[in-house]
Amino acid sequence: MNFEELGIEDRLLRAITEMGFEKPMPVQEQVLPLLLTHETDLVALAQTGTGKTAAFGLPAIQRLDLQSPATEVLILSPTRELCLQIAKDLKQYSKYVDGCSVVAVYGGASIDVQKKEVQKGAKIIVATPGRIHDMVRRRFVDLSQVKVTVLDEADEMLDMGFKDDLDAILEQTPDTKNTWLFSATMPDEVARIAKGYMNNPQEITVGTRNSGAQNVKHCYYLVQAKDRYLALKRIADYNPNIYAIIFCRTRTETQEVATALIRDGYNADALHGDLSQPQRDHVMNRFRCKNLQMLVATDVAARGLDVSNLTHVINYNLPDEIEVYTHRSGRTGRADKTGISIAIVNLREKHKIKKIEAIIKKKFEQLPIPTGMEVCQKQFFNMIHRVEHVDVNYDEINPFIGEVVKQLEWMDKEELIRRFVSIEFNRFLEYYRNAPDLNVKEKEERKAIEKKAKSTVHDDSGMARLIINLGYKDKIQPQRLIGMINDRCRDTKIKIGKIDISELFTYIDVDGNYANDIIEAFHGESYRGRPLIVQAAKSKRKDKDERRREEKEFRKQRNEHQQRNSHDDYPRSHKKDKKRPDERSRGDRKKHR
Ligand code: AMP
After folding, report:
1. pLDDT at 303 over 70
2. In 403-545, at which residue ranges do the beta strands (DSSP E only) sit?
3. pLDDT tens-digit map of 340-395
4. Looking at the chain, which terminus has fewer C-beta neighbours within 10 angstroms, N or C?
């Protein structure tokens, strides 16, 4: 069916045809006939990028009574960016509808200006919950004639803690209104809202419930935690035309990864809550117009960033709440394009992949991290591709060509190509020559973990003792150790007992049920560049001789481990005069790219 057959009136048809909407998208096919002909509540499960703005926007406009000056439609969205995007779309749809005023109301801009705009007349208000609540409290808006409320990205609004604002705002709207709720996922809280705010809502699901977008391929790379950043760089180098959001868990991590990427010469920047609004706008604009290839962001900061042609979404760390993965991956593969969602995981996090698969009802593919040579090959062919497709300014180049051809006459074509490509490529080859294999040999690693965990000693109260190669020489404090454990085992609450710090080691008593989890969580991690070892302690705390023996053995092991790991990295000969890819300065990298 086309838009006309679905019941869209002429003046809207004209506008959307001009916008390039030829045929309805699935969510529009389902939602439009219902909302155009029935006064009903609606719960629609649809991902961002599926065309849901038009699915609620077109009926909202078509149902307006343009004779009355009252505000009749209130659309709530979680972020300022999304709010502005929706308002912009609605203004475009209603281009030929006289008297259809759309006003956006959001935080971070003058409330007085917004008050004036609303009071001039707003048939439709698109708002973020915090700001509209404020305006309601100050009686700047009158919501008593509202006929339709749209809760867009309801799951995100709840995630961001807007529940109380939503309650207060909806209280001001008449009971007779219709509520249309759009959400990408259906966690319990959204289901409760649907029940609380709505009357017998019609339910519509586009695609599978809680599923990821259909044209997204999901894959993961298994690495040691310490190699996460190197793996990210490999992925970026292996995909020279990457245009991606890299999701991190915290603001600090976001900033660290972005700073490292910038230092290494990539077109990247950070987007997180510590930036001011103008700084955020600046970064987002640079990313939107592709001045940035990679945006490193927290989940909250990336909300509302509407970019539809990402090649990749990268989970630098998987989110704590698995539902969040759906939002992240849904940012690629939009509007009929294909996209790749990548997770960089360590052994301990691998089980999360299974959980996500169950939610998105799709399988992940485990991919090997490309070797240095594979990266080089990819870059090489990319360079050749660029040579093939570069715009040549014949008029300006031709005057010099004769002389140059003469000078290079002695070379055949192949030699010429070799030389031209080498100008850019040599540095790349040097950096990646001898680059280590970052892939985790899963079986061997599991064995190593089992060995460390084998002899956990439990006491009567069920506590087990662990030993870690950090001591007061490393300026380690009990609080810091507890923090490190909590940080790595964030999905479990672990009881921690006595912490006994000596010069080079620390004994820690932990809940025996989680001792092995902790050992696994620390496996492959490093502290200030030094490999961390956490393993089951063999000795009881009071037994001095046994403890001395253990310390001696552990010291030996610590030294061996350190030696082994320094070889695991880039070989020394390579290090001496050639920096590792992650040590390259911006200037180096630019030359090499
Ligand atoms: P949304 O999910 O509303 O953010 O829409 C995602 C993108 O698809 C936006 O850029 C819309 O302008 C575009 N879009 C929505 N409906 C259609 C359609 N029927 N045909 C072509 N593009 C559309």
Report:
1. yes
2. 463-468, 496-501, 506-511, 526-527, 530-531, 534-536
3. 999 999 887 888 898 888 888 888 999 999 999 899 998 899 888 888 888 999 99
4. N
Averaged pLDDT score across all residues of the chain? 84
- Measured in degrees and rounded to the nearest 5, phi and psi for residue 207 equal 75, -165
Atom of ligand 1 nearest to the CA of 22: 20
Of all helices (H) and strands (E), which one includes residue 354?
helix 350-360
Residue type, 398: N
Calpha distance 295→313 (Å, rounded): 10
57 C-beta closer than 6 A to ligand 1: no
Q: Mutate which of 81, 334, 337 to test ligand 1's pocket (most atoms within 8 Å of Cβ)? A: 334
- The residue whose C-alpha atom lies closest to atom 13 belonging to ligand 1 is 51
Of 463, 543, 531, the C-alpha closest to 499 is 463
Beta bridge partners, 17, equal none
User: Smallest Cα–Cα separation from 436: which of 526, 372, 367?
Assistant: 372
Q: Is 11 left (phi over 0), alpha (psi -120 to 50) or beta?
A: alpha
Beta bridge partners of 463: 511
- Token duo for residue 487: 């940080």
pLDDT above 90: percentage of residues in the chain = 41
pTM: 0.58
Give the DSSP letter of residue 458.
B
If one residue of 6, 8, 19 were mutated to test the ligand 1 pocket, choosing by the most ligand atoms within 8 A of its CB, it would be 19
pLDDT digits (tens, 9 = 90+) for 525-570: 778 777 788 888 876 656 677 777 777 777 776 676 666 554 333 3
CB of 206 sitting under 6 A from ligand 1: no
Report whether pLDDT(572) > 50. Answer: no
Place of tokens 């959204």: 190
Ligand 1 and 449: CB distance under 6 A: no
Tens digit of each residue's pLDDT (9 = 90 or more) over 41-51:
999 988 767 78
Pairwise CA distance, residues 160 & 50, whole Å: 22
191 lines ligand 1 (CB under 6 A): no
Cβ–ligand 1 contact at 25 (below 6 Å): yes
Among 5, 23, 25, which is best to mutate for testing ligand 1, by the most ligand atoms less than 8 A from CB?
Answer: 25
